[in-house]
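pasting for ref. prot 1 ->
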Amino acid sequence: MKKRVSAVLTAAMAVGTVWAVPTVARAADPYPIVSAGSWEERVIVYTGDWDTNVPRGLKAHVRKKGSPTRLATLTSFTRRPDGPCSWDCASEPPQDSLFQSDPVKLPELGTYTIDLEYTGTEGEPVVHEDSGVLSYAERPVISNLKSSPVSVEHLDTVVSGDLSVYNPLDGSSKPYAGAAFTAKRGAETTSRTADATGHFEEKFRIDHGDFRESPADSQTEFLVATKLNGEQTSKGVTTPVAPVETDLALDSSTLTGPFGDRVYLRGTATWKSADGTRKPLPALTTIDSGGWTSGSTAFSGGFILTQQLRGDAVTNVKPRSVWFGSKATVKVDTTPGAFFYSFAASVGPDRSVHVSSLFGRGEIPAGTTALKVDIEYSADGKTGWTSRKAFDVPTKPGTNQAFSIAQSLPYPGPGYVRLRYAGTPAIHGAVTAAVRIERTNTAIPEFNAAPEPAAKGKPITVTGKLNHAAPTWKPFAGQTVVYYFRPTGSTTWTEMGSSKTAADGTFRKSFTATRTGSWYASYAYPDSRHLGAKSRVDEVVVTP
């Protein structure tokens, strides 16, 4: 609740409004934090919720401060269309909660008190006295605000306008002689003074940064502001830009390549000065083209755009700036092809290599029903690539939706894997980058379940040793080994327990003999750097 009250105070200051926030909430009051202020002789009501409807029975009573006599009652309110959103609009109500009256007429200038009245949730009248303050005073007005055109060759603009003082008593205006005002452009604020008639004409220079920072639908703006009797008013003006003749010379106006390949569009951007000289566009001016990655000009005016081909197209190439008024056209001719993306490969603890990728195909000729993809392996990732598994990806003519590849194959040892579509004379091939696969091998070379035979109810002790190749074989300490038992005649293995390996890699655990069956040990849950391992199976006969 405090956040909303603070927000409306911030909003009020933004429009030169003075607010008073009530501290007492009424029973059955739908707007317990309602408050009021003023702007240009209007009463502004803030309800503090998300309701866009004017509160039922809303009235604003205006009286002289300190007097109980009501001088005016306002009953016509509309939702404020341009209320400032100075709080977090994602979590707090913006101008939806602000309502304004028509201008009020009062007998004399001064400061007045606003009482608010509306209908409560149970139909009863709810009154909030001293809900806000209305300033009925002379206020400043900005009019005839203009900014002269600029261009690449003419960077100076003249901002002009008139400052006057409006008197709400009789609706008269007079020049605001010698008024101080500010003109803000971006982060820069300049202070100036109007002449004896309230008129001003001030020259400002636009810098070359505006060439880069002005997108095609935006131009340089000035915000002019002035104050009188504590009341501030402001008004914005856009500086018109006269675009200069621009030439985009492309290295090629037609680009051809297979579907999925990345192509590059190169060119040089220049503009024509008044004396006919061609000059490069200012460095770092953005060059755009639909579907292409944007590029920036170098000091020479050169630029490079890039795109992954996804089909035929004709697009415009142009500067992203209002300062330069030309464009070029590039035609893209895409030929049959395929490409992989989001490729990943890893080795599982089960000694399997798992690969995944998305596979796009486009401009595929008629009669094509599938494309053959190979999973290839190389020890060094550069030479000796061999296919370890091949599979078909269903495909139809034209452009296909991305196919999700998920395949597994036995772990061939440390090395690299990739996906490759070799292609055909009609369809361009594709290959992924190589991905390193590696897990350290483990083994349980020693294992025994004893004694053999074992007497029922007596201990059976399972022992063994876990090694890992790091890189030569050595004991693997501190690892969990899991024990499994399968009764004779059964096909189901049951987990019986686990233990940790000692410093020399050995492990042991005892169980009570119950019936004849087989035992084995497994390094079943290795870390991400190791493979799993299983011991040999050892049968123990249990006697009565």
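and prot 2 ->
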Amino acid sequence: MDHVAPPTVALARQHALGDLPRRSARRTPDKPAVVDPTHGVSLTYAELDACIDRTAAALQSAGLVKGDRLALLARNSWAYVVLNFACARAGVVLVPLNFMLGAGEVAFILDHSEARALVVDTEHVEVAEAATARQETASPTLLAAIGGAPSSAGGTWVDAQSWFDHDGLPEPVAMADDDPVRLMYTSGTESRPKGAVMTSRALMWQYVSCALEADYSADDVELHTLPLYHCAQLDVFLGPDVWMGATSIVLPAPEPEQVLAAIAEHRVTKFFAPPTVWISLLRCPAFESTDLSSLEKGYYGASPMPVEILKEMSSRLPDVRLYNLYGQTEMSPLATFLGPDEQLSHAGSAGRPALNVETRIVDDAGEDVPQGEIGEIVHRSPHATLGYYRDEAKTAEAFAGGWFHSGDLGYLDDGGRLYVVDRKKDMIKTGGENVASREVEEAIYALEGVAEVAVFGVSHPRWVEAVTAVVVPKAGADVTAETVSTHARSVLAGYKTPKYVVVADSLPKNPSGKILKRQLRDEHAGIAGEG
């Protein structure tokens, strides 16, 4: 059957990321949408939608067109929320940047993404200027700062507030389901980050899975404190909240005292954090004296939750329903979930595949392994990325056999619950952030006098995993733990810098010469508790 619909039909059927705030505004225009206590800003859905319109129009007036990339380097704020949806409404591809990256790392992403625009908050202007100075290709032609244009750049920056106050409406931009709306850079398991191309189709199906599996509601009041540059906070929580018409309280960081105070003040019903933040809340002196009675749902993910901490959470927050959400950037990112009824009976499990996800455990040939045996975790879902930007080889590798290959190792139990046991390529998850061991190793290898190095994660009471390096010096070289740490700090983001460095005579290897990282993990498992 041949049937070609006219463009007006496509426009009438459009369901893209940029449409969501408008639809929520038409349902509940006067309902609080975004509350930013730090900056004293509160927006209803009608006000949020109008600001998104003005900002999208400003982007178009500045010369940005559908498909252009805008990089955003900033902490959480109401402005971050507006820019996320304004870019989508204008057809501009948002590139969220990790604000803990150094100038060289930011420069790489700006180069690779071919960003035409760069927006930063005032805190990160210095890093941004250093990054653009180090770019190998053309720097962004449009520079804007949230909080006022800095004078240090000789007038090249504009004040982003002028976008939020812009007079005019945007020209409509037709957005197909698989038009790119986001470019999410992930360290994954490689030495250089890859740009996962995300579309409205991927994000919207993921929002559906989140809402149904994790009990979201338009009545939710959610506290967002984890960085919005991270897909977990941005797309597992903020995006669905705006889609459903819930209220979002936005803070710049998960400081324990501020988190607890915000829950009490705003009567927060829903909160997500990686295990490290939940641990900090449990250890905060204000925990017992704070009124947390409004909190109904607690979510964790990004790294494994220690079972003892899970038991403590269940004991000290008995009325809070807990959910474990597992996935990765390329899955928008939700893949599996463990609900409240199985938190303690199946502690440590990542749960079952979400509604719109199929999950298998396969061997290196892509064949299913028997139940209980360890293999690679693969998924098939509309959540999945469109592929890696400017990297056909990595895209083909990741989607071999028509399934997305996660790079994580795990097994399924007799109830179909997933257990993640390792990273296929030694990715470390520390404080909810991904660190590629290879990237850290390459940085340390650049230090003169280093013969060999192995980087891996060890259990840590605060960070869950801590980056650890075992270094073998060249004969006669004066390499110490201190010199390695100093060098690493000078070239890597702080969270990637090894928290522990051990200088050794050799590294354990198998007969073929492969370094045995599992043995190193076992040998140094207790290093975090060794004075």
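The longest helix spans residues 45-61.
Residues 427-529 form a domain with the GMP Synthetase; Chain A, domain 3 fold (CATH 3.30.300.30).
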